[in-house]
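Researcher: I've been going back and forth with a colleague about how Pre-mRNA-splicing factor SYF2 might be arranged in three dimensions. Neither of us has a model we trust, so I'd like an independent prediction. The organism is Cepphus grylle, in case that matters for your notes. Sequence below.
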Amino acid sequence: GVGVPRHRAVAERGLFQGSGSEDEVRPSTAAAAAAAQKREERLRKFRELHMKRNEARKLNHQEVVEEDKRLKLPANWEAKKARLEWELKVEEKKKECAARGEDYERVKLLEISAEDAERWERRKKRKNPDLGFSDYAAAQLRKYQRLTRQIKPDLEQYEKLKEQYGEALYPTSDSLLHGTHVPSKEGVDRMVADLEKQIEKREKYSRRRPYNDDADIDYINERNAKFNKKAERFYGKYTAEIKQNLERGTAV
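Model: Here is an independent structure prediction for Pre-mRNA-splicing factor SYF2. You can compare it with whatever you and your colleague have in mind.
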């Protein structure tokens, strides 16, 4: 029954209302801070991804440019580049040896391993190295050496001839050789077999000329066909108009 003063009731109501608004503001501020932090983290990740994408794009562009340069280079550029680098290293090594007063060839030999030396020696001792064609004299000499290596001397027959002829078996500039030596039948047969083998091998390597079935037949035999080809090769450009007139029937 005792009445509460009006101003006290208003103060208490205002106090309660004030405390309730503070409780509501604190959670909303924390949520806003968490959202801002999350947004900042997402922006940071986005910036990192953007930087990585730009870096990848730059590297990709560099690779494309380098590949385009490599494609435009000659086919043997890598070999030439390696050769030039090796020559530069050799020149630098020679300068270093000259500055120290050493012989470059001796220093180079000291740096060669035993395996490399053995491999080079085996390569030097290879039988019948094919050096390619340089001139006809060198090709003839190589052919002669190859044929002489195939000859297997008959030592028994040599000893018999040595006993029979003595010093005459070794002729000098004053010796008369014509008609003094008669080859054996076995030797002649061996020479004939060797010549036939050479002819057979040469025929295998002959270049086969293509035959054109649609070409005009203007020859009577194989020899005449070869002659016509030679004449066409040398005089074809001068006789082309005459042939055309003869074919059309308009020759004067």
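Researcher: What would you highlight for our discussion?
Model: I'd start with this: The radius of gyration is 50 Å. After that, consider the following. The chain is about 70% helix and 0% strand.
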